[in-house]
Design a protein that fits this description.
The chain is of the alpha/beta class. The protein has four helices and six strands; from the N terminus they run E-H-E-H-H-H-E-E-E-E.
Length: 141
């Protein structure tokens, strides 16, 4: 038997967390569904890590354009150190992920590690083999 939700949220990034929290506070039942590690693409694999890596390249570019105008040394990127610096951001998402996931789970259903697809709107099949379904009145992608 499928549990019926007022809202199914696909993804567990910042926007999903905010939406789930607000509608739960309004009295709705919520399912947060994500097959990737908790935290969302932006924090773990997208925007945030990219910005850290690009900033290293931008520093090199700015210094090379200033050579002959007061900047005298050649700069280079220590990739191991830059990647370690990037991980200081992304690893904290992994570290606090279980805490935030637990907070979401207390107010909604956190359905992680499952792939999903629409079987017929608004029903979402989470796993054909297990026959897990999450019918919802509303959906946020």
């Amino acid at each position: 038997m499928a549990t019926r939700y007022d809202l199914a949220v696909i993804g567990s990034g910042t926007a999903a967390q905010m939406a789930a929290g607000r509608v739960h506070k309004a009295g709705w039942t919520v399912a947060v569904i994500d097959h990737q590690p908790f935290g969302g693409t932006c924090a773990l694999r997208g925007c945030d890590p990219k910005k850290v890596l690009i900033s290293g390249a931008e520093a090199i570019d700015a210094a090379s354009r200033m050579r002959g105008h007061g900047v005298t040394r050649e700069l280079s990127i220590d990739w191991r150190e830059l990647i370690a610096f990037k991980r200081s951001f992304t690893d904290t998402v992994h570290d606090i992920g279980p805490l935030v996931e637990d907070a979401i789970a207390r107010r909604s259903a956190m359905l992680g590690g499952l792939t999903w697809h629409f079987c017929r709107p608004p029903v979402i099949d989470l796993d054909f083999e297990m026959d897990v379904r999450a019918p919802a009145r509303e959906l946020i992608l």
